[in-house]
Amino acid sequence: MSDSNNDKTTQNALGYPLLQPQVPVPSDIEVSQSIVRDVGLLPLSDLAQQLGLADDEVLPWGIAKAKIPLMVRERRASQPSGNYVVVTGINPTPLGEGKSTTTIGLAQALGAIRGKTTVACIRQPSQGPTFGIKGGAAGGGYAQVVPMEEFNLHLTGDIHAVTAANNLLAAALEARMFHEASQSDEALLKRLCPNNEFSPVMKKRLSKLGIDITKKPNDLTDEERTQFARLDIDPDTITWQRVLDTCDRHLRAVQVGLGSKETVKNTSGNGRIPHSRHTGFDITVASEVMAVLALAKNLADLREKLGNMVVGYSQRNAQPITADDLGCGGALAVLMKDALMPTLMQTVERTPVLVHAGPFANIATGNSSVVADEIALKLVGADGFVVTEAGFGADIGMEKFFNIKCRASGLKPKCAVIVATVRALKMHGGGPPVSAGKPLAVEYTQEHVELVTKGAANLVKHIENARKFGVNVVVAVNQFKSDTAAELEAVRQAALAAGAHNAVVSNHWALGGAGAADLAKAVEQACAETKAENFRFLYDADKSIAEKIETICREIYGADGVDYADLAQQQMQQYEEAGFGKMPICIAKTQYSFSCDPAAKGVPTGFRVAVREIRACVGAGFLYPICGDIMTIPGLPTRPGFYDVDIDCETGDVIGLF
């Protein structure tokens, strides 16, 4: 495997040249481009060899990435799985606290420094924050995925596939409502079945309605014809929205159907009126299609989940209307078939990474895919490690990882790594607000142990929450250059006093895997000293919807209770009656606080959670309460990140991308 000489002082544990970090650390894109230019990417065949992948198990997508088919998992079904580790964090500042960087740094330390077969499993970043305010998700400094510009821009097109599938279903919904408003039952049936034959997806609807699937369209009774051809969707119950992978606040509320050709007869008989309604857009990573991608077990499961997605309810009998009722479940699966395969990439230290799915944690499930983790766990073997990342703070990303993702996969993690920074703890201790694009206040650049100690209450609450799931907790104190020894030690002592298995200062951003070597040792020890059987869920999915929501809000957030808007109350009743009440809960709320108030730092008390609506993601398999004023599509700031992005027209290099 070595591409150097036999002098071990120049090689890492994998036999590759040791990383040579520069001081000061260049920008993320400069680090990435220097690795690609000066060191060179590891050929995909060599990267695959690390994991024992056969030639037919690697589908190259250019020279820097490859798709990994699901047969890799099936071929190794009898092999033992590796140690399962999730990386999460405290409630962050708007600048982020380096959770992705820690995920990659830990994987580099376990693999390139400690010599353990290791795979990092991370999400594909959304274009929204890439060009907006937060940046990408490749990690940073000398702990990142390379080439970072390919990682952060398009990758293998999976997010675009989600956008296409989501919006095909939205178009099918609008078209069906339009045609039903302007045609008789007989005309609808003739146009749906022009050759007097039902397509396979139509037979699924017949079966759902209890109609004999051997019948021909012309053999249907008048009642059956109406049942089949007329979905009669109640516009007030529609929860399906269009999506795009861009931050655009002006699409949160829109009106569709205003074109001169989209008109129907006025019910009064006088002229024609627009077939119009109010709707809105979500960001692509909040789409249920993305959640289905993240939770699907295989192609058949993907197809079933996509077909079962509910878009609204019938006015006739309040029955849920699904993508298969609209006839496009199969077409959605065709659009998503390549996206179901995780993408193989590498870190700056040539350790493997599987990139897959991209749901946000504040407005979606917040974790990479089940299939990526399952494939990785089989590839690393019993002594190896899979380091997967849960988005944003542990109150949302980690909670959803345990209660939704692990419930869907059946996988049992051993260790949770909680990333904390002195900067964020100072903010939670009463420091001035932190805003992207503005200089940090002096409290964040000079020693202030008192603020750190006070803010550590936020970290303590997250440690207590993680331990409720039966996993060992390791705190990774992600070091910044302005941190002092006294501040770092204050974080360590607070974490250990709260019951963390260990707490380690880590400097992987500046040093790569070597800077996370102690963290890797702590994670190895934490995994060795627990059993996967200790893992447990926070709640029983058979509880009522309200009980599950209240359990999360009280146990994880520390709320006094939950208040429901009238719409949310109606939706809970509707979902219980429709048989959706036994699904896990995926709460959408701010990532900046345990509460729904982003300004409430530390560990707020005496608050209640306000649920304004609840969406049913029936295909993905969870219910989706939306709390406070959280928005499902972000807006751009005054000075978005795209101001700095450009291209060198002579070399073709991307410049200014973080």
TrEMBL record:
GO terms for molecular function: ATP binding; formate-tetrahydrofolate ligase activity. Pfam families: FTHFS. Keywords: ATP-binding, Ligase, Nucleotide-binding, One-carbon metabolism. Its EC number is 6.3.4.3. GO terms for biological process: tetrahydrofolate interconversion. It is an enzyme of class 6 (ligase). The keyword Ligase applies. PROSITE patterns: FTHFS_1, FTHFS_2. It comes from the Eukaryota. Pathway: One-carbon metabolism; tetrahydrofolate interconversion. This is formate--tetrahydrofolate ligase.
